[in-house]
Design goal:
Chain lengths: 801, 264
């Protein structure tokens, strides 16, 4: 790697985010900021029922209201021959049984299956007129039994949500070696059992979803502006499966996007509705989600119910692990939903430990709730939480120190590459290094003094550790194809060097808060020796960028950045040929560094901009051998997942009178591979930690027995606030990824993955004198007070020692 | 929101006249509750009577041993006004905990009192301090004003113009916020003054109420310990996904202790 550009700009520099000036000064251009000439507005009438049969839809009165241009129901969608909303991943379960994949209609057909299921669309001159008319639509519903929980959906004789999903089961899947695991348990000194529910979360990106459909009757081209993390994926799914429009007639633009966390990966019905309606009406159609609408229409996250058993020998070594998970899919299969509890979750059951035998089973269940899909971490937070709580429970039952039991079971640095019993092969890591550093920064050794001091103030102080591992950089296309993905998961970069040496980078990844415009520019600046100011990063428009798969799973740098390196390697290779011609030297003798093509061992050199100018003004140029121009495209298909890991240590204080938990210290030492921009990495980790603390302490999605969402607004759904977030101690400790050119692993999700068990381990530790062994997430004030109250109240019991 | 007519009178008399002429009209002060309800189409008034142009609804003045605060005085002003901070500092501290900066610069004390949200802060203070609510036509003691959830003793068309707080010797406030909405899950305002000891509770029940057992205990012994052993019956308290009635009952005791400590 060249270390040539000034350290203030290249790899390793904390360059300020170039995109922030427009974001912070209100000049971002989000989908809702866009308005097309002649634009109409759509309002979506949604189901008030969790599960009901639609008898009839009377739109006559609504159609006669002012400004109404069209009203669409399932009948129109079906008459037009549109397809259903597709699922991008097919899981094959036990015995080769393919998952149940019921039709997900664009508009509810015959039945509604969750509160918020779209039933009809009104298109009118104004948004208010569309909403007025939607209120005048009369839908006759015959309510059917609600299935708001997996227990209700799996109960014998439960109503069927979909006729073609018997028992409301989507799939029943397994991984690992059941017989070997049974044998491990048979030889165990001790078996530790643990059950938990990973609480369901509403993503709540700051920017609600929005979509504008546009249609040019002259060219026949459809354009969709949408709040998406992956415009090419939307174009493929919507064009090929729903609207049946070929790619060259469909452009998808995802402009500035205000947060996604996974919820903007998926192709949503509203995108197809506005795109199709615009073509019907020959006018642009805009839809912007209300916040309260987002609660019942954005895919939710998590919602796993898991039972686990860990077999240990007398020294505390892990011998075997058995895990059974029920995974809530919601009412329909969202784009990646089947992959989340299986290939993104159960494949991580080894964690950072040498457990030799593992068997995991996942039963995916349809319920009358909003579809559930990937949310920041996507499956890995669920497994990490399970493992890191289970390890603490095991330490307690074995009478072992929580640090010691982890150390005893860590995969050691000399064991890489390490093949787990659940398919993955880890390439690198040093879990002892991140643990040691986090313990030092967190002043773990002096914790008991702080606990005693807190006790003197009437507060319960606890400390919790999480040593996690996760998988990012999704993923080798061949592998994921074997696992059921219906797409490749490579990434693409097009590097266009302009005549004067400035550079445009076209990437298939998408930035919706990650700071790609800065990080990628730093990477290109470093590799090509071009000043940062001469590099622009272009993303988000299928009319401009080559076919790439977008941003999720912390993949942008590991996969997208690797594609850029490949494309830049081609640029440099071509530049060396041009330089060899101009310098009258052989190509083999041309070195490239510091933005200079140089004849090795001499001071004869051509600057990068001289080479680019020669490429576009090829007067003195080896035109017989190489083409003019300096522009290269590369696709990069990853060789493996990347495996970030690290240690999070949380310290809390609980007010025993109210049950309130305050996070007083939080230390994170993460191995995310090579760091391009330390400030952006720290920001990503801090954001993830805030979400992890939110999940652990306050965030919760609650449905009642009728399938009504009780936590349906910010009045009842608690989000973490700045005052609840401590001043984090965040650091990185690096081992390089061995199989991508930059050695990067990914940092977008580690915060949300590693932190929830650290928080709950701390809460349980704070309550240790009460004999508490587990607190389910979220550990709300009421829940903690109830536990303390049931154990005799706030008067502190004598310490166990 | 649905369409409505908009009026901006400049006197209380004009506002009351507009309200009398149209029973479906609603007065709006800061709009911190009404505007979201309108945006969610939960409310369909024929007209909004904007009170922000009425000068006589503003102002903070000392009247003998009482502080009279105009209905349109904003939370931010109550939190920062030197007269209030000197006379009833606990009221200023309470106002500083309402909502966020934007809410405190829009929301008004009159709007909050007249709305009588069970989780609003001020009703507990009005009860504990023995305040008098002043309307366009009469004066109503706080004890008679807060009737039930979102309900007051005011008649249709009656307009709250101000509130008179007797200045206490001591007062204090403590609350636990709802983790989601940040409204009061349970708050307790305690005061000792010319009208004796008052303990007002918000957030816990359908309507703010006085905890008279605690008042008697504090009258005998003004200290946190005096209320520490008093258990609020949970029978009529609110229960929701954030807090059971039993939890709120516990909070009444805990917040009362802390309010007394806050009062000093």
């Amino acid at each position: 790697m060249n270390v040539t550009t000034p350290p203030s700009e290249g790899i390793g520099a904390s360059v300020r985010r170039r995109e922030d000036l427009r974001f912070l000064s209100g000049r971002g251009q989000y989908t809702d900021d866009l308005n097309r000439p002649g634009q109409l507005h759509a309002w979506i009438l949604r189901s008030p029922h969790a599960h009901a049969r639609i008898g009839g839809i009377d739109t006559a009165a609504a159609a006669a209201m002012p400004g109404v241009r069209a009203i669409y129901t399932a009948a129109h969608i079906e008459a037009a021959g549109l397809g259903g909303v597709p699922c991008g991943w097919q899981v094959t379960g036990k015995g080769g049984k393919v998952m149940a994949e019921p039709m997900h209609p664009v508009l509810a057909s015959g039945k509604v299956r969750h509160v918020g299921d779209p039933v009809a669309v009104v298109v009118a001159e104004t948004r208010s007129q569309a909403r007025d008319a939607a209120e005048a639509i009369a839908v006759s519903y015959t309510p059917l039994p609600a299935l708001p929980t997996m227990a209700a959906a799996l109960a014998p004789g439960a109503a069927l949500l979909h006729d073609d999903a018997p028992g409301n089961v989507c799939f029943d899947w397994e991984i690992g070696d059941a017989a070997a695991t049974d044998a491990a348990f048979a030889a165990a000194y001790k078996v530790v059992r643990f059950e938990t529910t990973n609480n369901r979360l509403v993503p709540n990106a700051m920017e609600p979803r929005a979509a504008i459909g546009d249609y040019d009757p002259n060219s026949g081209e459809h354009t969709l502006y949408t709040t998406s993390q992956n415009p090419h994926v939307i174009r493929l799914l919507m064009g090929a499966f729903v609207l049946k429009v070929p790619e060259h007639r469909l452009r998808v633009v995802a402009p500035d996007v205000g947060g996604g966390f996974g919820s903007k990966i998926y192709h949503y019905a509203e995108e197809a509705i506005v795109t199709w309606a615009a073509a019907q009406l020959k006018r642009p159609v805009k839809w912007t989600c209300e916040r309260s609408e987002a609660f019942v229409s954005d895919a939710h996250g998590r919602d796993h119910v898991t039972r686990a058993e860990l077999a240990l020998d007398a020294e505390g070594r892990f011998l075997g692990l058995r895990v059974e998970t029920l995974a809530n899919m919601g009412a329909y299969l969202s784009t990646f939903a089947p992959a989340v509890p299986t290939y993104l979750s159960a494949t991580l059951l080894a964690g950072c430990y040498t457990t030799p035998a593992i068997h995991g089973q996942v039963k995916a269940v349809f319920t009358s709730t909003v579809p559930v899909d990937a949310y920041r971490g996507a499956g890995r937070p669920e497994t990490t939480y399970l493992l890191e709580r289970l390890v603490d429970v095991a330490a307690r039952e074995m009478g072992m120190d929580r640090v010691e039991i982890r150390r005893k079971n860590f995969i050691r640095p000399d064991q890489f590459p390490y093949q787990t019993p659940v398919a993955l092969q880890y390439d690198s890591g040093d879990y002892e290094a991140t643990l040691r550093e986090a313990l030092r920064v967190a002043r773990y050794d002096s914790f008991e003094q702080r606990r005693a001091e807190a006790k003197a103030r009437g507060r319960l102080r606890g400390i919790g550790i999480s040593t996690y591992l996760e998988a990012c950089g999704i993923a080798p296309s061949k592998l994921v194809g074997q696992l059921g993905a219906r797409a490749g998961l490579y990434e693409v970069a097009n590097i266009r060097v302009h005549p004067t040496g400035s550079v445009s980078v076209f990437t298939g990844t998408h930035s919706h808060g990650q700071g790609h415009e800065t990080t990628f520019a730093q990477l290109v600046s470093e590799q090509l020796g071009v000043p940062l100011s001469q590099v622009e990063v272009v993303h988000g428009d299928t009319g401009k960028i080559p076919f790439g798969m977008g941003t999720y799973g912390s993949r942008s740098l590991a996969v997208g950045g690797s594609a850029m390196v490949k494309a830049m390697d081609k640029i440099i290779a071509k530049g060396r040929k041009i330089a060899a011609h101009l310098l009258e030297a052989s190509v083999e003798d041309i070195e490239f560094s510091n933005g200079q093509f140089r004849v090795a061992g001499t001071d004869r050199a051509k600057a990068f901009a001289e080479i680019s100018m020669a490429a576009y003004v090829p007067h003195n140029y080896p035109i017989e051998e190489i083409e003019p121009g300096l522009e290269e495209t590369a696709f990069y298909d990853p060789k493996n997942f990347t495996y970030p890991g690290g240690c999070h240590i949380c310290e809390v204080e609980i007010d025993p009178e109210t049950g309130e938990t305050e996070v007083v210290n939080f230390t994170a030492c993460d191995d995310v591979g090579r760091v391009i921009n330390p400030m952006i990495v720290e920001g990503q980790i801090q954001g993830g930690l805030a979400q992890g603390i939110g999940q652990a302490l306050i965030e919760n999605t609650v449905y009642d027995s009728e399938g009504q969402l009780l936590s349906a607004s910010f009045a009842d759904y608690a989000m973490p606030r700045a005052a609840q977030i401590p001043a984090f101690d965040v650091s990185t400790s690096t081992t390089l990824c061995t199989h991508n050119p930059l050695g990067v692993k990914g940092c977008g999700e580690v915060g949300a993955i590693g932190s929830p068990p650290a928080v709950i381990n701390a809460v349980v530790d704070a309550l240790r004198d009460y004999g508490v062994t587990h607190v389910e997430m979220p550990a709300t004030p009421q829940k903690i007070w109830s536990i303390i109250h049931s154990k005799g109240g706030a008067a502190l019991p004598a310490a166990a020692e | 929101m649905y369409d409505f007519a908009y009026h901006k009178p400049t006197s209380v008399a004009d506002a009351v006249k507009l309200l009398a002429e149209d029973p479906d009209a609603r007065p709006i002060s800061g709009g911190m509750t009404l505007l979201p309800a309108l945006k969610h189409r939960l409310n369909m008034p024929s007209a909004l009577i904007d009170l922000s142009g009425i000068a006589e609804l503003r102002g903070i003045r000392r009247e003998g041993d009482a502080l009279v605060i105009g209905a349109m005085v904003k939370h931010f002003e109550i939190a920062t006004d030197p007269q209030i901070m000197a006379a009833i500092p606990a009221l200023s501290r309470m106002a500083a905990t309402i909502g966020d900066t934007q809410v405190r610069n829009r929301g008004t004390i009159g709007g909050s009192l007249a709305n009588n949200d069970p989780a609003a802060d001020y009703p507990a203070a009005a009860l504990a301090l023995g305040a008098t609510l002043i309307t366009d036509r009469r004066q109503i003691p706080a004890d008679a004003f807060f009737v039930g959830m979102f309900t007051t003793a005011m008649e249709p068309g009656e307009l709250l113009v101000g509130v008179s707080f007797p200045i206490p010797e001591k007062a204090g406030y403590a609350k636990l916020r709802n983790p989601a909405s940040r409204y009061s899950m349970t708050g307790v305002f305690v005061a000792r003054g010319p009208k004796g000891v008052g303990v007002g509770v918000n957030g816990a029940a359908a309507c703010a109420f006085r905890q008279k057992e605690m008042e008697a205990a504090l009258a005998a012994n003004w200290s946190p310990e005096a209320v520490a052993g008093i258990r609020q019956p949970a029978d009529d308290l609110n229960s929701d996904i954030h807090g059971s009635a039993e939890y709120r009952a516990n909070l009444v005791t805990v917040m009362a202790k802390r309010a007394v400590a806050d009062a000093g």
